[in-house]
Design goal:
The protein is an alpha+beta fold. It contains 13 helices and 19 strands. The chain folds into three domains: 118 residues, D-Maltodextrin-Binding Protein, domain 2 (3-Layer(aba) Sandwich); 114 residues, Dipeptide-binding Protein, domain 1 (Alpha-Beta Complex), CATH 3.90.76.10; 201 residues, Dipeptide-binding Protein, domain 3. Strands 1, 8, 9, 10, 11, 12, 13, 14, 15, 16 and 17 form an eleven-stranded mixed β-sheet that branches. A four-stranded antiparallel β-sheet has the order 4-5-7-6, covered by helices on one side. The chain has a two-stranded antiparallel sheet with strand order 2-3.
Amino acid sequence: MLKVTRSFLYVFLAVLLMSVSQAFAAKKDLTVGLQLEPPHLDPTGAAAGAIDQVLYSNVFEGLTRFASDGSIIPGLAKSWTVSSDGLTYLFELNQGVTFHDGSFMDANDVKFSLDRINAEDSANAQKKLYEAISSVDVVDSHKVKITLSKPNGNLLFNLAWGDAVIVAKETIENIKQKPIGTGAFIFDSWTQGDRIELKKNDVYWGENAKLDKVIFKFISDPSAAFAAVMAEDVDVFRGFPSPENLVQFEADSRFKVLKGSTEGETILSTNNKMEPFNNLKVRKALAHAINRKEIIDGVMFGYGTPIGSHFAPHHPAYLDLTGNSNHDPDLSKKLLAEAGFPDGFETTLKLPPPAYARKGGEIIAAQLRKVGIQTVITNLEWSQWLEEVFRNKDYGLTIVAHTEPFDIGIYGRPDYYFQYDSKDFQGIMDSLTSETDPATRKKLLQQAQTMISNDYVNGFLFQRPNLSVINAKVSGIWANSPTQATDLTAVSWE
């Protein structure tokens, strides 16, 4: 009888210990909430930041990459050397890197990926960044030489963008629906309108991910986002769309609120070639009709930094030019009259899905009405906005956050969707590209900021904060957002 009792006790204790162990074992799956769903899954073929939010560093990798503090660190390239004239870059690749289909990644894949960016039929949204690349040569299987037509002090920075990730020729045909990269996670499935699932890459060439499974859940409605986090249906919500609710999460021990910075300049984008916005006085009137504080308070509940040009306030070269477009409705009316519009005019205001755009659009429309500018508001889904506004330039005004890092260079592209064509500005950008001296680069950047502010290219509103709500037991989530990414490679449960 004693033996039976003891045996039973041992079994009971073993079961109890196993149960306790399982209870305290760290979770291996994570559900991340995002507001925007990608239009497709090729980061090299669209301007949509929503693609990089899911795939950057998780599924796809480049030669270099962004660290959490915005610095540039090695990626698929473990090291590089630069010639004294700044025209030749020799990259040494990490060995033993495989794509998710089991094939090895080598120098030929790097050449294919970079040549593809500059091909005549390229759909790469940032093609301009790489136009100085005159040739990409395979030295051997793990060495690549990039030759430039002119020095480019931003090359390592540009190669870290999601637009320059390394892909394989053999899998490129289906990349929009089935992305195959080299990252710590493998694409598993996409239920459109709902979620994207990733799974751990067990044969990853670098440090293995701590999570086994990741679900990206797309929740566009701010109220639904709040409910999902509160019910713990999602573990992390990046870019939380309801800043008015943050105080509730801060008071709840189940959650942590991260308040970081982004590269996201939120602007009232203006079609500079469309009448009457091709008139400088009209654009200036538009800028002085805007009350930034009212927009930040109404849309972001006080979170956000006013900007007077397209440049991040945390950058060392930043100039505060908000005084150049201070809220002055009387001046706005005077300028409109001088431009030939004493009674104002009517234009379109096409808004993408994010709350800052939809809510901000209502506030700005009311502000513009006070000076005589009437707006016809159209709410667009993200794919519609990309087609109508970004590609076809069929708009008068729109509101969008430009979240690409260090992207003032877009103002040097006459065919970009706000169609600003200034030879003087393009000259500044050309000088900046070839300049390596920090002091001179700072001076050029400040000249560029001043020029687009004085030309009133767009209505410059505010720098977006990075607001995230996460489960208190989750660690490794970036507070700041130096690029459009939800890097989960070092994320774990405590």
